[in-house]
What we know:
It contains four helices and eight strands; from the N terminus they run ββββααββββαα. The protein is an alpha+beta fold. Among the domains are: about 45 residues, Cysteine Rich Protein; about 45 residues, Ribbon (Cysteine Rich Protein). The strands form four sheets. Strands 1-2 form a two-stranded antiparallel ribbon.
Amino acid sequence: MPNWGGGAKCGACEKTVYHAEEIQCNGRSFHKTCFHCMACRKALDSTTVAAHESEIYCKTCYGRKYGPKGIGFGQGAGCLSTDTGDHLGLNLQQGSPKSSHPSTPTNPSKFAKKMVDVDKCPRCGKSVYAAEKIMGGGKPWHKTCFRCAICGKSLESTNVTDKDGELYCKVCYAKNFGPKGIGFGGLTQVEKKE
């Protein structure tokens, strides 16, 4: 039967999808507002969608439903997951025995300690989190604290030097800790004659 009214039918709501509101996935068309995970209803885009036949899921729900079964699977490498997906309406217990205890012992106090032990900035003494961390002299620094100890110039990897746990620009380092004499450390020919 010919489609007289416009575009294709939406894979989720079965209504007409016009070109301006169309997202295509796995050979099917969807409204932008209908492009959600079929299990958790999270909005999807081209980087987060995982399609299985005529169904679309976020990568997490897809892994729970169609990925390997058992403790530690369905969440990515290195994660221990006992989430069954029951709250999302996923039946994941099909033929996979589930042990009541994890196969590796966990120590929550060790994990909690790791979350609390955040690196401290040598300049200001405050916590340095990953988003603001710059390494210099083998220590983590805030971006705003990553400055020369003498002149205050902002530093980067090409002009930083360190001595005794403190950071310096190359000019200040040369003046204060470099070789002394004519042509070094700011002395000139005029100073020598006097």
